[in-house]
Amino acid sequence: MAAPNLLQLSPPTCDDRLIWDVERSFYHFPTLAAADELGLFPLLDTNPMTAAQVGQALSLGPRATEALLGVLTSLGFLTQSHGHFSLSGVSRTYLLPGSPYYRGSIIKLFGNVPLTSATILEALKKERASAYGGGEMWETHEMDSALAEGFTHAMHCQSLPLAMGVALNGDFHGIKRVLDVGGGSGCFCIVVAQRWPGTTFTIMELPAVSKVAQRYIAEHGLQDRINTVELDMFKDRWPREYDGVFFSNVFHDWDRDRCLFLSRRAFEALPSGGRIFVNEMLLDETKDRPLAATSFSMTMMVYTQGKQYSANELREILGESGFEDIRVTPTHCYYSLVTARKR
Ligand SMILES: C[S@@+](CC[C@H](N)C(=O)[O-])C[C@H]1O[C@@H](n2cnc3c(N)ncnc32)[C@H](O)[C@@H]1O
């Protein structure tokens, strides 16, 4: 058989930049996690440094330093001017261990989780979370309190800027008592309590996470305004003495039927005039952007039974449960607060 003459092929009609970029993106997050572990960001906190100075300080050779600084600068975590590297605003805010918004615990958590196409394929084909050895994530946390604690600290650092967004942009006028369902570390209650001094809060959580929340509440001296109840939101009866029910990053853990169940439970538990608050990263109505939300849906495939919802999907769920006056308020970054009222 004659050897194929490749020059007879028509050249590609478009270049493969997108393929290159996505293939190489496999290295972005682990490089960020490695830089965090090396202490690169605090090193550049006070003074810009040359590559040679960074290499010397971190005991890295010139090839390794060039690779590290190159990836982080092209991603936007560093800037380079006249051969000196400095922190960008994002790095200064989220990557310095001394910053209140330091993302170290979530970077460390996911920096150590290997993700392969096999994990994604299993989740896609079986329509079942493949992380945690196929076990239910929250049940696994309840059986392993160290895992629950590590995850809750990681969620705390991711959620703190979101909580600021909710406290500053959410309308809690007239709300006296809020039930935060699946409230995690309590960071939403803590920040909203500081912004809205007339309101008290209860975090409804599973026992292992509830204990972590109690520590965060005590750290902020808010024990008189925030308490916790150890209840299973699906199995136990919900307390009734609240005029606000808040969920953050909870609907995205569950399928539509479970979200409808939670929304109906909230409706039943609220008095007339009571309000529901749902804080989520929203998908566009076309379900194909933003990239952070479409990728977050894939994360939910791998870890949970849920997905990211669009504003209209959440509107429908709340409307079907009986809520009226449904509003969507952008709060922080990709997140919005969907609120509604029980007539
Ligand atoms: C993704 S985290 C969100 C935490 C927090 N709301 C935030 O946005 O940072 C979901 C939370 O739901 C809690 N959770 C899961 N199943 C639950 C259940 N059956 N009853 C109560 N809480 C539950 C988990 O323990 C976890 O803290």
Summarize the structure.
With 343 residues, the chain is α/β, with parallel strands linked by helices. It is built from 15 helices and 9 strands. The strands form 2 sheets. Strands 5-4-3-6-7-9-8 form a 7-stranded mixed sheet, with helices on both faces. A two-stranded antiparallel sheet has the order 1-2.
Map the helices and strands.
Blueprint: H1 17-25, H2 28-38, H3 40-43, H4 51-58, H5 62-75, E1 78-81, E2 84-87, H6 89-94, H7 104-111, H8 117-126, H9 137-143, H10 145-169, E3 177-181, H11 187-195, E4 200-205, H12 207-219, E5 226-230, E6 244-248, H13 256-269, E7 275-281, H14 291-303, H15 311-321, E8 324-332, E9 335-341
Parallel strand pairs: 3-4, 3-6, 4-5, 6-7
Antiparallel strand pairs: 1-2, 7-9, 8-9
Helix pairs in contact: 2-5, 2-7, 4-5, 7-10, 9-10, 10-11, 10-12, 13-15
S-adenosylmethionine (SAM) is lined by residues 138, 155, 159, 182-184, 204-206, 209, 232-234, 248-250, 253.
Counting DSSP E segments of at least 2 residues, the number of strands comes to: 9
CATH topology of the largest domain: Rossmann fold
Main-sheet strand order equals 5-4-3-6-7-9-8
Element order: H for helix, E for strand:
HHHHHEEHHHHHEHEHEEHEHHEE
State the low-pLDDT regions, or none: none
Give a list of the ligands.
S-adenosylmethionine
The H-level CATH homologous superfamily of the largest domain, spelled out, is Vaccinia Virus protein VP39
Main sheet specs: 7 strands, mixed
The count of helical stretches stands at 15
What is the number of domains? 2
- The separation of the N and C termini measures 79 Å
* Structural class computed from helices and strand pairing: alpha/beta
Mean pLDDT equals 96
Strand fraction band?
15-25%
Helix content: 40-55%
CATH architecture of the largest domain: 3-Layer(aba) Sandwich
CATH class of the largest domain: Alpha Beta
Shape: globular
Using only C-alpha atoms, the radius of gyration works out to: 23 Å
